[in-house]
Design goal:
The chain is of the alpha/beta class. It has helices at 14-22, 43-52, 64-78, 93-104, 119-127, 145-153, 175-188, 246-258, 266-278, 280-302, 327-336, 363-373; strands at 87-90, 110-115, 131-136, 157-163, 191-195, 221-225, 239-242, 307-308, 316-320, 342-343, 354-358. The strands form 2 sheets. Strands 1-7-6-5-4-2-3 form a 7-stranded mixed β-sheet, sandwiched between helices.
């Protein structure tokens, strides 16, 4: 029904420009930055053109359909009941999370993360003058609760940044995990900042267990969501902060207004309104294609001695090359074949010898790269 075979032309794309700067002869799609090389849903352009016929791009309030469509989407797809009062609209997830660090902690405070983890979490913790408290996940991706409880008991540590689903592992967390984390955070007065930006890209029948399903967490919880991964909108800077606790919501609202970050442009809001209202079938087809691409990739990389477990969520694959301490060597071999992925070390020392691969591209292009990979 939708076109997932045509690659859009992206002359100003960040990941394409970075690849070409390093390899002008590359004829492969870069498999690095987590955006998709698919055309957006065609109805989006029609909707925006229709709105522009009104002739107004003035100061407009957020329309009721924005909230209604997102609330209905989450109920139908995830069984998640959201309240309109919980919403704060802000810039992108990472800039908004940075502001949460400023608003809810002090310089020098500890921020706990489970590594390997999305590298921009390290960036904002350092930028805010807070201290990274890294806790290594077990090799199977499970949490070391003994280490977490010990870190949580330290009065210096104030915040947990959580990635749900997990980037780069592609892991969906169990409800029991979220309940256990919520209990530890409540007992030790830790704030939970849960990045759930990948929560709609659920594969092979996986279920998204949002922290918003865990009422025990409500008093100390901010969930960050956006349509940027769901609908490939990385260039649009808008996110929703979902905050059940009124006092915490008031603190964040006041802080965002002081920083000039409260709200988003009318076009950003309209895009999300339209896509959450009309994009369900597009996302269903997208997920079906991603599942095929992931299984295809897992099968092919085994032939060169690499290994990857099929992701439960996201359009990212966490590949174990076995090249511990030899990351530079494997990257050089790939670059000679004009193939670019994200080195696992960016996500923490636990990622050495791993690669994060973006599989959100037409299958024909993916096959071309996989055939190149056989030559390494």
């Amino acid at each position: 029904m939708f076109d997932f075979t045509t690659m859009p032309k992206r002359p100003d794309s960040r990941k394409w420009k970075a690849m070409i700067a390093e390899d002008k002869n590359s004829d492969c799609c870069p498999l690095t930055v987590a955006d998709m090389d698919f055309l957006h849903m065609p109805q989006l352009g029609e909707n925006l053109r229709e709105y522009l016929k009104t002739g107004s791009l003035g100061y407009e309030n957020t329309r009721k359909f924005y909230y209604e469509n997102i609330i209905e989407w989450n109920w139908k797809r995830h069984g998640l009941k959201l309240e309109k009062d919980w919403f704060l609209i802000s810039s992108g997830v990472i800039p908004s999370m940075l502001q949460a660090l400023y608003a809810l902690s002090e310089p020098g405070d500890g921020v706990i993360v489970f590594t390997p983890i999305y590298h921009n979490f390290f960036t904002i913790i350092e930028a805010s003058g807070r201290k990274q408290v890294r806790i290594s996940l077990y090799k199977d991706g499970n949490i070391n609760y003994d280490a977490f409880e010990q870190a949580a008991k330290s009065e210096k540590n104030k915040i947990l940044i959580f990635c749900n689903p997990h980037n780069p592992l592609g892991k969906v967390w169990l409800e029991e995990d979220l309940k256990r984390i919520a209990k530890i955070c409540e007992e030790n007065e830790l704030i939970i900042l849960s990045d759930e930006i990948h929560g709609d890209i659920l594969l092979f029948g996986s279920i998204q267990n949002s922290f918003l399903k865990i009422e025990q967490a409500y008093n100390r919880l901010i969930v960050f969501t956006s349509g940027s991964k769901t609908f490939n909108l990385g260039g649009m800077k808008i996110s929703n902060l979902l905050i059940p606790n009124a006092e915490l919501r008031k603190i964040m609202s006041h802080h965002l207004q002081k920083q000039g970050m409260f709200g988003a442009s009318i076009m950003d809001r309209l895009v999300l309104e339209y896509l959450y209202g009309q994009g369900s079938l597009w996302v269903d087809e997208l997920i079906s294609l991603l599942e095929k691409n992931i299984l295809r990739t897992c099968s092919q990389i085994q032939k060169i001695g690499w290994h990857a477990k099929a992701s439960e969520a996201t359009f990212l694959l966490w590949i174990d090359t076995g090249f511990r301490g030899r990351e530079k060597e494997i990257l050089e071999k790939m670059h000679k074949k004009h193939i670019f992925m994200t080195p696992g070390s960016q996500f923490g020392v636990e990622g050495e010898g791993f690669l994060r691969m973006n599989v959100a591209l037409p299958t024909r292009e993916l096959d071309y790269i996989l055939n190149r990979l056989k030559e390494i």
